[in-house]
Amino acid sequence: MKTLAKEIKFKTKKKYDFRDTTEKIEEMVAASKVKNGIVNVQSLHTSSAVYVNENEPLLLKDLQENWRTLFSPTQRYHHDNMHIRTVNVCKDECKNGHSHCNAVVLGTSVSLNIVKGKIKLGKWQRMFFVELDRSRDRGVSVMIVGE
């Protein structure tokens, strides 16, 4: 059995910065020499997500608008109340309860099959990292396992 663990690091530009990670991860799979197995892609953050869908500009706009509606930044979140919150508070903490809630719905990771040395994706499927908060240094963990 072969394994390869890598990270992709980048700085996001803004909220709803979509990063199509497909080509980078395909390169990692090729370098791993795994012919049949699994690639798991995992966000290393609690206010971002990893998902698979189409890379079409109007769809990305639809996603942004619907995520804003699903967990609106203008709603009240207990997580954002710094007068009562005492856990996991950083020096420059921002109000981002909505980002965390969206991340829970979208998910932290995706696992995809590797067949004959290639990631098994449908015609329009792409792998994305999406920033749900604000510009930050971010990372994605990639684990490739197989034979």
Q: What can be said about this structure in brief?
A:
The mean pLDDT is 96. The chain starts with a strand and ends with a strand. With 147 residues, it is an alpha+beta fold.
The CATH class = Mainly Beta
Distance separating the two termini: 5 Å
- Rounded Rg: 17 Å
Q: What do we call the CATH homologous superfamily?
A: YjbQ-like
Could you report the average pLDDT, rounded to the nearest whole number?
Answer: 96
What does the largest sheet look like? 5 strands, antiparallel
Output the number of helix runs: 3
Q: What is the level-2 CATH architecture name?
A: Sandwich
Keywords for this structure?
single chain; 147 residues; alpha+beta; Jelly Rolls; three-stranded antiparallel beta sheet; 3 helices
Structural write-up:
The protein contains 3 helices and 8 strands, in the order E-E-H-E-E-H-H-E-E-E-E. It has a single domain, classed as Jelly Rolls (Sandwich). The longest helix is centred in the middle third of the chain and has 14 residues, at 57-70. With 147 residues, it is of the alpha+beta class. The strands form 2 sheets. A 5-stranded antiparallel beta sheet has the order 1-8-3-5-6, with helices on one face. 24% of the residues lie in helices and 36% in strands. Strand 5 (109-115) and strand 6 form a beta hairpin. The radius of gyration is 17 Å and the shape is globular.
